[in-house]
Amino acid sequence: MATPVKRKRESFSNCNHDLNSNQKQNIFSDAPDKLKTFTAWCASNKFNISRKVQVGREGSCAQYGMTAVEDIPEGYCLFQVPRTSLLMPHNTNIAGLIEQEKSKLAATNQWVPLLISLLHEENNPTSKWRPYLDLFPDFETLDLPMFWERSDIEKLLRGTGVDLAVERDLKMIRDDYNKLVLPFFDRHSDEISKGQMDLDYFKKMVAFVMSYSFTEPRHRRTKNSENSNSGDSGEEESDSDDDEPSMLPPMMVPLADTLNHITHNNAKLTFGKEALKMVAARPIKKGEEIFNTYGQVSNLHLMHMYGFAEPYPDNTNDVVEIPVVRIFEAAKDLHQDKESSYKSHLDVVWAFLIEQELILADDIFVLGREGIITDDICIQALKVLSMDKQQFVEYTEKEGWSDAESDTSLAEDSRLELAKIPSLVDVRWKQLLKRMGQLHLNNYTTTLEEDEAKLRVISTLTSQEKFALYTAHGQKMLIKLLIDACS
Ligand SMILES: C[S@@+](CC[C@H](N)C(=O)[O-])C[C@H]1O[C@@H](n2cnc3c(N)ncnc32)[C@H](O)[C@@H]1O
Predict the structure, then answer these.
(1) Whether the CB of 62 sits within 6 Å of ligand 1
(2) Which of 121, 149, 349, 392 is placed for a possible disulfide with 127 were both Cys, Cβ 3.0 to 4.6 Å?
(3) Is 371 in the pocket of ligand 1 (CB under 6 A)?
């Protein structure tokens, strides 16, 4: 991922907004009770919300959101979230219990300690986060694909990768619930109660963490975080071990999580020692919605984790993940008229690539707006699959071939950027890439032309249909760019 541009810290990013009581009243005057209670809680916990913004449904593209009620300059601090108000395991009163079992609970999934903390707080009528938790009372509006009927996933999302991600999630949720979460509550039934929890309820909590939690980069030098733009984390640096993950475990960041996402965001979260601050990433005009970034993420990721996607070409971070086996299928397809000994030669070549681990069977090629991002494995496959039998024998007999191959083709001029593909010397590479794209298009349930017809009547679609269409259509457009570059 590209590194976000580091922006100048401006003096008005200090978040010390002095609001008089009239101004406070105006900002939330149309808010329903739960939102008022929540924003009053934010005020009493020193969130220092600027009078230039308003939280609510008005002006938001999806349920709650934040809008500018005055012009806002770049670098201006919209609000802060003191670290003491972050809902994370070590801030709760079961911190000790979780800490004792942390390595077991977080062994497969960093989310489990947070999920247990959330379940505990949700079950506690006097939780210090009560006004925050009550704002999202039943999670009924979380329309993530993991709640969809299997038949709808198959019909709308097959081939996008979201279908596979949901399958993996559902298995992991069941396993985490049965093997970690329930046993934890049972072991500590004297100290904490699991209340009405069952698997369905746990699943809703997972969805809440999935689409509302934030992660913070461990090092200041690490630029990107999921569900936040951490490029200008600013005030803090830790001396953590290089082996440790670059992200800290997830946490809930009240108020920051009312902001919606857009690829070209106008606000970003920064991580300070005492507080996290939401800062204007560019000037924002009165009336504009304030959008955070959930990271430089593809539609596949947005659809999977958050249940929405952006229409082509808005999401410049979009990618399509093509299983590597598709290039082998392309080679076979291109040579289907050839004699059977050539086809078995291709089988030998593919087995060789896998055996020598030049390619892993479950690898993917990642195709983005500029070209194939994982071009080293793709070039490896193109090179070997384009050889005739004699060239392949010579290649495998060549002493030290593996060292030589490991740095092949990574010179700047041979990267698989779309702009450079038309001038590739070996026409077989272009044929393979083009056929790979054509074959991948067969995995979706609709054609590009059918998608375009639906886009013309977008207002008649349900939101599930709309966002699934944006996901599949965006991916097909990227494949079309590849096919066009090879033609
Ligand atoms: C962190 S929450 C943002 C606050 C949310 N709108 C609410 O009402 O609570 C993330 C959820 O907001 C929605 N969302 C965020 N950005 C969106 C966008 N650009 N378009 C549609 N829905 C969006 C999605 O439902 C997502 O799962």
Answers:
(1) yes
(2) 121
(3) no
Query: Is 124 near ligand 1, meaning CB less than 6 Å away?
Result: no
Residues 6+ apart with CB under 8 A from 376: 409, 410
Residue type, 318: D
| Distance from residue 142's CA to the centre of ligand 1 (Å) | 9
Any residues with CB less than 8 A from the CB of 256 and at least 6 apart, and which? 79, 81, 214, 228, 269, 276, 278, 292
Name the region of 109 (left: φ>0; alpha: ψ -120 to 50; beta: rest): beta
Q: Is the CB of 434 under 6 A from ligand 1?
A: no
Per residue in 46-66, pLDDT (tens digit) is 999 999 999 999 999 998 999
Spacing, Cα 261 to ligand 1 middle (Å)? 7
Q: Residue 31 in contact with residue 256, Cβ under 8 Å? A: no
pTM of the model: 0.89
Q: If you compute the radius of gyration of the chain from its CA atoms, what whole number of angstroms results?
A: 25
CA distance 136 to 35: 10
Q: Is the CB of 47 under 6 A from ligand 1?
A: no
Helix 199-212 to helix 162-176 angle, to the nearest 10 degrees? 130
The count of C-alpha atoms lying within 13 angstroms of the C-alpha of 85, restricted to the half-sphere facing its C-beta, is 24
- Nearest atom (ligand 1) to Cα of 143: 25
Q: Which of 66-70, 216-220, 299-303 has the lowest mean pLDDT?
A: 216-220
Pocket test for ligand 1, best of 38, 260, 278, 292 (most atoms within 8 A of CB): 260
Crossing angle between the packed helical segments 199-212 and 111-122, to the nearest 10 degrees: 110
State residue 382's pLDDT score.
93
Query: Exposed, middle or buried by CB within 10 Å (0-12, 13-18, 19+), for 125?
Result: exposed
* Ligand 1 proximity of 226 Cβ (cutoff 6 Å): no
Give me the interface pTM, i.e. the ipTM.
0.99
Ligand 1 touching residue 38 (CB < 6 A): no
Q: How many CA atoms lie within 13 A of 389 on its CB side?
A: 8
Residue nearest to atom 24 of ligand 1 (CA): 306
Distance of CA 136 to the CA centre of its chain: 22
Nearest residue (CA) to ligand 1, atom 27: 306
Ligand 1 atom at minimum distance from 135 CA: 9
Residue 191's nearest CA partner among 116, 272, 288 is 116
C-beta of residue 477 within 8 angstroms of C-beta of residue 412: no
Between the CA of residue 349 and those of 14, 343, 360, 388, 426, what are the distances in Å?
61, 10, 14, 10, 18
